[in-house]
Amino acid sequence: MSSTSGIYSSTMGRATVDSINHQRIAEKLIILNDRSLGMLTRLYNIKKACADPKSKPSFLTDKSLDGAIKHIVKKFPVVDTKSNSYVSSMKTDITRNLSLYYYTFADLLDLRDHILQLLTTMDVAQCQLDITVNYDLTTAYLNLVVNLICLMILLSKVEDRRAVLGLFNAAYDLTHGQSEASFPRLGQMIIDYENPLKKLAEDLGPLNRLVIAALKSVSTVYIRRNITAEAWRKAEMLSFTANPKQLLYTAVTEEIAGEYLSLDDMDRWIVLCVTVCSSNALNDPILYNMYQRALQSGLVIRLFRDEVFPIHSQIQSFFESMKGFVKKTHDIKECYAVSLDTSIAIHRERRRFLRGALKDLCLLLKDQPGLLGPKALFVWMGLSFARDEVSWYLRHVDAFPEPAKKSKRETEDINDKQLPELLFYMNELRLLVTKYGYVISRYYVRYIRGYEAVELRQIVQSLQNLREEDIVVLSSFVATATELDRESTNFSALRLDWFRLQASLSSQRSSFRLLDNKRFASVMNSTVFHLKMIDLQQDMLKETSDLSIFCFYTRQLETQLRQCLTLPSQSRFSISYAFICAHFVSALHDMCPEEKIHIVERGLSMCNMILEQLAREAISVISRLGEHELMLSEKLSTRECASIIAEAMRPKTGKHAVTTVRRMPGEESVRIMRDQLTLPDKLMTALVELCSAVGYCRELTVSEHIFAPREFLCQEMERYLGDVLRTSLAKDQSGEHPKRPSEMLATLNAQISVLQMVDSCVSIDMMKLLTTALLQQTQPMDSQGSETLTSIYCKWYLEVLLRRASNCQIVYSDHFESFISNSENLPFAPDQYTDTHELNCLVQLIGPYGVKHLSERLIWHVASQITELNKIVRDNREILQAARTSFDKPERMRELVAQLSGADQRDRRNNSNHHQSSHVGGAMESILQRVTIIGEIIAFRDLLHDALHDVLELRTPFLLSSLHELDASTDERDKLAISEMCAAVGSKTTVDLALVNAIRAQAQTQRLTNPEEHYNISCLLFVFIAISLPKLALASTSFFRAHILASQNNSHTIPLAVNTLAGALFTLHEKNDVVPRMKEFLALASSGLLQILGTPDAEAMKEHQSVFIILEQLVKRSHYLTFDLLESCFPYNLIRTSYLSCYNRHE
Prior knowledge:
Belongs to the HEM-1/HEM-2 family. InterPro entries: Nck-associated_protein-1 (IPR019137). The protein has 50 helices and eight strands. Strands 1-2 form a two-stranded antiparallel ribbon. It is about 70% helix and about 0% strand.
């Protein structure tokens, strides 16, 4: 491998002033700096891959190659063929998988040679670098030197670099019969840069003059920039209003580009370049002063992304290896101590100052965006200052050593809880520049054309000793500036021309020396800067405020976000972290395309996580506000009112003399002092701040994906509302049954009132959100596949309340129009779930759709009971046929009833799997029990429909009145067509069309496809019910309790069941004979009941009078029977006597 000194000597031997093409220096600086960033990106990814066991090349962890790798690393870079035998079987896979790693190192070697060659060329050309004059040339030169240093340091930090290179070369040797061509020089480079600072000092030693000159020129900018926040305040930095008379003047300085130059970059230039060139640079007092300031400003500097360089320890160790640097080593230790003591406070104060300064800038520019024209420089300066402080903070959060005794104060010093505010104002400025970019471009088009182009023309005409080609370039530049218009959108050629001129005119041997014409250079730099205001606004934003560094500090980002969301004073700024995710793609480089997918996905996932966390934090506050609102609502409940009344009526003497002071509802609103904040006040403040973050923007774009923060909040609120309703409904105070509908409605109203507060805090379609969320609660299942209010209540009413009613533990009362308890052992009060108020609340909760679903389930159960009834009828068809024609023959009827009693025993044996009532007493009892169950279900269904109708009358009175008029104007034949519509609003109809459809579906399931057979079974069913009614008189539970208008066994619901079944069954058969069939039923029933009187069975059938009342109720509720017809077959005085007897027995 040829040495570096060989490169230097050959270059200097060839280089003469005439042969050096100065115009190519600019292009090479641009290309090599770009390639350096690309190579840093590739090296960074290799380092991370080798450090992570999951992404490390599998060959490095293969135990079969363990011996070969150890041998290669030990002998590196010597090629030892003894190791080749280990890798011969895997040579193809090794070559293919490690080629990217190997050729990255080979590219690095080539890049280093080109960089050193260019640096030597510039040194030979005796370029004169001054950042205040040839800004582009000086910054590009220093960046190139620093990039080279960072590349070599990062190379030395790559684990397994020897193993990767040696293993690849061994596989390559086996495949091609010789080592890879660049391996000898590459191996030597790896060895040389084991101690990168030492080797870099040797490489860059001959270039000290140019490096030192460039750094010295930075001193004026650096010293002016690296000051405390107090000095910024005294200088009124970044203030528009400091000098109101010059508010509309263009902000221009002699060193305009240096005003927003990154302090972070200058620290890197100074620390790394002076360290590498320490033998000469530290002897210069200016550089030494800058060096100390840079070392005292922090503990680490950036190498690349999140790779940092611990400057004090590394430089101290480097200086200790050099002779004559004892004092310098001691100075490094002092700088380290000063940095530990002061750097945190200095940077904390800077961030505090920048928060206020950027806030003022945002407020002024939002109010007067026209100021963006003349004062654009202030925006770039503010963004650059803030970006430097944010970058410093991210690097140093984990850089400071933990003290032996952990001090809470020291921890709080480095932890900046107000960082989100600074990030927010940075983003606000970026958005303002993007929004009003046309203001800036239009202003500077006119400014350059009207002022700078004129001044530049005068200066150029007075210049002497310029070469002819330089005059042509400058003349073209001036002409373009003079003819500038808003349609000119790309001035990269002009900027490149000026860069070339800087390279050409900065040579000491040039006839025209740029350093001697500083006014010309200043105007050119100013013009180039203002051209950027026209066509490179986005690039300027990236240069001054790019925060893609957060992509590699995701753990800190998550920590800061959590901390931000818990602080009400900062939570409104949490949205800034979502905007930062859009910066991640700025970290990409064309030389490393393989990381694009990972970085884009990381940006998208982080943005999604941030918005989800923001929405969930808002939901957490909403939840606590909802609990408080519900507590206030409960204080106004009837239960609380009853307890207040009971306490007020309690005796005040004796053991009751001591009473507790109860806070009355409304006292929580009484304020004594305005500055006393209650918990709801604090929660409301937190909610307003969080909603401010959510509502900051309608949408934000991350990697061509659009995120809508308000949609995240809407989705979370929709999910929250469903969850809180399910949670509240799941358990009541006893822990066994769902809450009463009235209590659930109070809970829902409390939650809605809180959500309406959100509507006043952030502009979202709350009506649509509530409609969507509550509409889901009216369905059996919501969009998440979870249970809803409808499904939970439907399940409970069917499987708990109505099942207990079928067991006679609950009784339906016509008087109370609800189900009431018939047992002392019930764990709940049925009337608290079925009275008018509760069912009205239930209807408001589940809506018409929920009522429809519950009604369909109820009707399905009725249809199932009818199917079982049909089975019993088929088993006793012959007897029933005989009874149908013998109702006026008492002796024959007794024989038939006796036969049915005999059939009862067979029914118990053959139908053991039927409803439990079939086990009690045979076919007649089973018929009565099932008809009673149908009556209970229909009674509950009617209560539900009445509640629906009442609610709709309040909510949609005009719609209901129209429907009532339609119903009233329709004749009986056509009412069937609108019966389903009437049922949907809770109006009563003659025929239950839903039951008709359910019976039809059940019949098809039971294969009752013959209409005549089905019709005959329906007729016999009514015969069976009629002749079974007298059986009710045998049960003492059939007694009709007059004070509640109900029987203990719910037999009083049989009339409702019979009338409903008659309308549905005979409408289904379409024979138009409902009235004859009901007359037949009345004749059979009245005949059977009259036969009780005057017979020995009358004594056993003690409750026959209650059954008489059932017969009267059947006629009263029927649309097909009249009392005249009843009087013709059953004396009405018996019914009056029965009522009187029941009332007397109750008394």
